[in-house]
Amino acid sequence: MTIRDMLGRSGVVSREDALTSVYEHFVLPDLERETVHISHALGRVAVEDVRSPVDLPDFNRSTVDGYAVSSGDTFGASEAHAAYLPIVADIPMGSLPERDLAKGETMAIATGGALPGGADAVVMFEHTQPVDENHIEVVKPAAPLENVIQIGDDVREGEVLISSGRVLRPQDMAMLAGVGITTVTVFEQPRVAIISTGNEIIPADRRPTKGQVRDVNSYNLEGLITQAGGVPVKKGIIPDEYARLRTIVEESARDCRLLLLTGGSSVGTADLTAKVIDDLGPPGVLVHGVSVKPGKPLIAGLVKAVQGGAPVPVFGLPGHPAAVTVCFDLFVRPLLNRLRGESPKPVLRGRASYSVVKAKLARSVSSTPGREDHVRVVLEEREEELWARPVFGASGLISTLVKADGTVVIPVNEIGIEAEEEVEVRLFR
Amino acid sequence: MTIRDMLGRSGVVSREDALTSVYEHFVLPDLERETVHISHALGRVAVEDVRSPVDLPDFNRSTVDGYAVSSGDTFGASEAHAAYLPIVADIPMGSLPERDLAKGETMAIATGGALPGGADAVVMFEHTQPVDENHIEVVKPAAPLENVIQIGDDVREGEVLISSGRVLRPQDMAMLAGVGITTVTVFEQPRVAIISTGNEIIPADRRPTKGQVRDVNSYNLEGLITQAGGVPVKKGIIPDEYARLRTIVEESARDCRLLLLTGGSSVGTADLTAKVIDDLGPPGVLVHGVSVKPGKPLIAGLVKAVQGGAPVPVFGLPGHPAAVTVCFDLFVRPLLNRLRGESPKPVLRGRASYSVVKAKLARSVSSTPGREDHVRVVLEEREEELWARPVFGASGLISTLVKADGTVVIPVNEIGIEAEEEVEVRLFR
């Protein structure tokens, strides 16, 4: 097939339809799991619901600095009629005092201290007055349980602490530590194959001859996959030869959960990618072209994996660096999240997962209706206002992506955004 | 000193004043640097400006699929008066054709292909019509340089690609790869000491006796430090004994860039922390109490490091888990960013570095003027609207922090936020 034969074919679908097509054929594979120490669980995804083996706290705890009392002893206390109590002990942190509190007595207690038997409330220090070294006056009554965290108030034995499918955050590890759980079972980090293609592509450490370009997209993808919690697996640079591309795709489908082909910008590379994916179906290619700019030449589909295994999603990413970034965000990341075992709260699914700042658009940008435009912008400050200046230049330039701080999205049915309109800038991670 | 002696002392400053006090005494230490492969540079901070050793691209490149021409041959071309041109070659990807283009000729070229000598523009495929296998008609003129990226259009030799102090993103590694730079010099990842204190604190894997609690904050901090690009160094759990705490702080100031003390919630722990920091000054303690909730008991200061070294910032974080998270975000993270060598674009400094979603507040929350309130909220969806439901409960509970999806901030001078008002929820990472 010559370049001429390949030119000029296209069929474009919307972003939503592209995702729907892929999800229709996507089957979550049987994910591996491993048990890791909580210190190494950050960002990993919990396999099972984790329940508390204990009540937390397992003693009645003071939430203030003050005096442990039997609340009845303070009823009716006021500045005029203070309750006069002897201080019979200082409660040491980390243990109980040697004896219980008797009626008419008090003990000094610090935040986090354990209430002795006989005490059911804590009077804040500020609501007492010293009389002498061993006596105080309480000038405000304490209700039963006032300033006390009771046994099990934080967590009850058997309560679910961490739900299956949760991405573990710092506080989740703290919670587990708090109830004495120091290991957690998490899903594998999915391996994602990066297959660079295109006769013009050479490794970054080689010197190009005229017409050759160094492989940039595989480095961009390596970073994006890492940020998204996957394990990038570089499969090397494959020339536009059917047999070699097919072999590497088949091999990658056996040892990776998701395949990303990238590199070449030519129609020849794209056609070869599509043919290999199609021949390794069903279903093969599902999407060839999306109404997203940059990103239009996207190819998406699934190939058969090992005998009886779930089909493996494959993306043929456009060769332009900016298109790689946009397509990763819109199409690859959602699938990768599922392959990590993530089941976010439904309410958070699809909500902003990037930092956003508001800015005024520094100049008008036009767009073609029917196409979702992702415009790279640089942030600038003028007269204490934040402005987003569009970075123009072909999506084939990598430098525009490096200069940009983020993107502004022009929705699919808009014809553009006027200068000085307020826009939301999605910051690059 | 007894608990009684310690009770009831406080002096509270605003968040801004607290930060200002610390920055006044902060001196950036002489950071270590290392050279890493770009594949391992994600999230690291560049030491020096990196300049391009080459022009990119280093050949004139087509941005479309179509036909390379000498633009003069297409002047005046239209549907009615098409320019008739013989196709003398298909330009292979990755190399130049064997000969230059002569006047009156064309060559088929794909996106990313190299223009041959004699060609100065590319006619898009869509603006041509095939005549026979070896001839086309051009129906629209191509201006000189149309659809061509010229040598150096992306990057010029000597141009700064990456500025000193930039946190490296996926596209930055791609940019470096594109010009053949495969290693980059980055700053050390600062070691951050986590010192747990408090007589009541025991390791997570030990069973508490009454009054003891497991160390949760060091796990929360371990995660927060890792997310912020530091290296958490756990120094163990230290009882409330002056000599032992002083020794561990001195030791940590020698091998870490930043010290975080955490754990105990009692006034005894807090006083001891303050005394040790003060004795290891000047300047010692600068802040003891901030008008932030949760977070009020924060201690901040700097201690002397090794002879002639920069003073080392120390935070005595409140013992309550929610306060640890809030104080880390407001006070520790900005300093840690500087200790990573980060010099963000001024325009981005202090801008949102977290994901934000808008929601309606599910119930009114009141606040005390003069205090900045960080209210934990759970996100819920009702009738397709997003609602933020405040999670009440003492900041000493870890479970509220785990249930929460993020926080809503009530500014320092507000008395609260009414139910159904729209709020911005800062999502936890």
Description:
2 copies of one chain form a homodimer. The first copy, chain A, is of the alpha/beta class and 429 residues long. Chain A has helices at 3-6, 15-25, 170-178, 217-227, 242-255, 267-279, 321-339, 399-403, and strands spanning 33-37, 50-51, 61-62, 66-69, 83-90, 106-109, 121-124, 128-132, 135-138, 148-149, 160-162, 183-187, 191-197, 201-202, 213-214, 231-238, 258-263, 284-288, 292-293, 299-303, 312-316, 356-361, 365-366, 372-382, 385-390, 406-410, 416-417, 422-427. Chain A folds into 4 domains: 3-32 and 188-348, MoaB/Mog-like domain (Molybdenum Cofactor Biosythetic Enzyme, Chain A, 3-Layer(aba) Sandwich), CATH 3.40.980.10; 33-56 and 153-187, Molybdopterin biosynthesis moea protein, domain 2 (Alpha-Beta Complex), CATH 3.90.105.10; 61-149, Molybdopterin biosynthesis moea protein, domain 3 (Molybdopterin biosynthesis moeA protein, domain 3), CATH 2.170.190; 356-427, Beta-clip. The first copy, chain A, has 8 helices and 28 strands. In chain A, strand 8 (128-132) and strand 9 (135-138) form a beta hairpin. In chain A, helix 4 packs parallel to helix 7 (321-339) and helix 5 (242-255) crosses helix 6 (267-279). The longest helix of chain A is centred in the last third of the chain and has 19 residues, at 321-339. Chain A is elongated, with a radius of gyration of 31 Å.
